[in-house]
Amino acid sequence: MASTLFSRAFLAASRRLITPSLLPETTLNLAAFLSKRSFFSQLGASSTWARRAMASSGVGGKAGYATSSVPTNEPVVSVDWLHSNLREPDLKVLDASWYMPEEQRNSIQEYQVAHVPGALFFDLDGISDRSTSLPHMLPSEEAFGAGCSALGIENKNGVVVYDAKGIYSAARVWWMFRAFGHNKVWVLDGGLPRWRASGYDVESSASGDAILKASAASESIEKIYQGQTVSPITFQTKFQPHLVWSLDQVKKNMEDPTYQHIDARSKARFDGTAPEPRKGIRSGHIPGSKCVPFPQLLDSSQTLLPAEEVKKRFEQEEISLDKPIMASCGTGVTACILAMGLHRLGKTDVPVYDGSWTEWATEPDLPREGAESSS
């Protein structure tokens, strides 16, 4: 497989650090600003906002790593927090970069060129359900546990996930860990671009160990689906069914709405005026769903908007935050960004339709709405 070929090619490569040039910034780096103790001291120790901001940015309190300093209702950590805690042994960093086929980018090769020092590569397509033709579907409990164990992840670990776009595929992996009962997981706000723009080092020519682990994780998944035993298992899972919706659940909700259905795809794809990126899939949308394109929740530097701004985005689309919400997209990736935004608002139980539009649109008897679907 590809990962094995890469491991052989780079086994002899030495590890080195590249210090990137600082990129010009036209706006104030708020995350960096808020991480300064002097700023918080000016606010006063009695400021509730100051205490919360200190906690979420990883400053204040005891020195060193402590996931307790990052609230579990906060889905992201800043690049400054990660830089301060990067070498802590109980923290695992995962590069979960992934691209659509038409982008013609190779996430493993890009990982080899530049990644956060010490980060492991999480193969979104490799750690997936092998019993379906749908792309990167959620694997079984046993398979996910085997894959994470092969990567060296344990239940005691805090996990920070990032990707090379800012906030994109990392959100999917954040949701996957939560779907299997691991809540000590966060997305790196702004991802690798933000990390590099902040002047932090990246690592190139990863050790063969990192690539071998990625390959072993994919092979472990394959063995599970073939009925073979995989050991040792260091990561125990506890499936959270309320976070994962099936086609039948979406169909039932369409017929008898109890959850508001939001779709993270672009308005053009949702309306059926632009083609789907995957061949053979007609554009359009599931009846009753509303379009909330995922980029609306991100700022220009691809970081998650503040809670008040996120709230406005949903309210603009007439989504009630007082009622249940479920999310979908094309293949269950960017729907997780909507789930992250709602998580920031305290709605921590938003399910994602795993198969999303790709599954729905390939079922000939299911209703569809939109220009292309009605043609």
Automatic annotation (TrEMBL):
The cross-references to PROSITE patterns, in alphabetical order and at most eight, read: RHODANESE_1 (PS00380), RHODANESE_2 (PS00683), RHODANESE_3 (PS50206)
Q: Which domain of life is it from?
A: Eukaryota
Q: Which UniProt keywords apply?
A: Repeat, Transferase
Q: Which GO biological process categories is it annotated with?
A: embryo development ending in seed dormancy
- Cellular component terms per the entry's GO annotation: cytoplasm
What the entry lists under InterPro entries is as follows: Rhodanese-like_dom (IPR001763), Rhodanese-like_dom_sf (IPR036873), Thiosulphate_STrfase_CS (IPR001307), TST/MPST-like (IPR045078)
Question: CDD domains from the xrefs?
Answer: TST_Repeat_1, TST_Repeat_2
Q: Reaction catalysed by this chain?
A: thiosulfate + hydrogen cyanide = thiocyanate + sulfite + 2 H(+); 2-oxo-3-sulfanylpropanoate + [thioredoxin]-dithiol = [thioredoxin]-disulfide + hydrogen sulfide + pyruvate + H(+)
Task: Write out the GO MF terms.
Answer: 3-mercaptopyruvate sulfurtransferase activity; thiosulfate-cyanide sulfurtransferase activity
In this chain, the stretch annotated as Disordered covers 269-288
Query: Does the keyword section mention Repeat?
Result: yes
Domain Rhodanese as annotated: residue spans:
87-204, 255-369
Q: Short name of one Pfam family for this protein?
A: Rhodanese
Q: What is the annotated role of this protein in its UniProt record?
A: Catalyzes the transfer of a sulfur ion from a donor to cyanide or to other thiol compounds. Substrate preference is 3-mercaptopyruvate > thiosulfate. Involved in embryo and seed development.
Q: What is this protein called?
A: Sulfurtransferase
